[in-house]
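User: I'm curious whether this sequence folds into something compact or stays loose and floppy. Could you predict its structure so I can see for myself?
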Amino acid sequence: MAGNDESPDGSRSNRLIRNLYRTGGYVYAAKPGDIAREHGFSRIARLASNENPWPPSPAAVKAGCEALREANRYPDEGMEDLSRTLARFHGDFSFVTGVGMDGVIETIIRTVINPGDRVAISVPTFSFYRLAALAQNAKVVEIRRGRDFSIDTRQFIRETRDAKISFLCSPNNPTGTVTPVEDIREILSVISGILFLDNAYVEFSDIDYRPLMNEFDNLVIGRTMSKAFALAGARVGYAFVPGWLTPFYHRAATPFTLNSISASVACGAFADRERMDEYVSYVRQWRERIRQECPLPSPASGANFLMFDTRPESGDEMVRLLAGKGVIVRSCASFPGLPDHYIRVSIGDVWENEIFLTAIRGICRSHR
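Assistant: Here's the prediction. I'll summarize afterward.
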């Protein structure tokens, strides 16, 4: 039949699709609608994707609506307005942008990695680093964190000495672990490749890595508007980069990568610093309360989520049990380098946090 992309026996896909994509891929959390229908809930506590439960700033919404008036035109390929906004907010640094931090990660890898080049990744962590590196035919080397999920800097340096790019997330997803600035400085002072420091959750911590950009020309700091600024749906990512990397990044980037509406929404969100600060304070208060009141053990977190050890239950089983109570959390079984007895729980709205605490206490009482 015309337009059929695959013969009945699957031979076309077997012949054309890369082996990398025959199985696997990024693992998403369960869809709230599916869980609601399955268990008969009118609403579901969405605590699986580290989303901001508050709506975007009114300033961001207004900026996005105004930008829609010119949506018939292509966006500025250099994102000059957003770059100037970033400089006003952060200081005099060089910036690049992308469709979410995922897009920045993909473009950085595409810019510097040839087939067979080494990419080092500190695990357990966000799985997309590995997926993006393998898509560029890199050789991926995983560096395990310690039992407390901290970084052994000497081991990290040994394993990354000949890597073109190394990925380290702080605060780390899914553990919440924060790596001290001095550890990052020690790593940067020795390695010759790029260190991509993922700071998606840094607004929720007390740490600031930005001054390191003035000391080292092999550091890239990735940021996102999805978390503290409540713009997950707008998909705005950006990164602090050394000046020498900028022109090459733009050559490797997909043309007109970030749309003008999302860029304008981000500029509006940056203009409302008070709303972001208020949300960060809210997360910190609830993060401490949930960690104290949940009967499951959790390492300290510098992010807008907590990771809990579910033993003797597996993470998948705990996700199933919580779904039956109207709560969606994330099993950590898909995170490289992590045993299958952890869940990650986002800080949600007040009612979501309360229903999680009630549900997890009931489950722990009945299963132990």
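Summary: Residues 58-271 form a domain with the Aspartate Aminotransferase; domain 2 fold (CATH 3.40.640.10). The first helix runs from residue 11 to 16.
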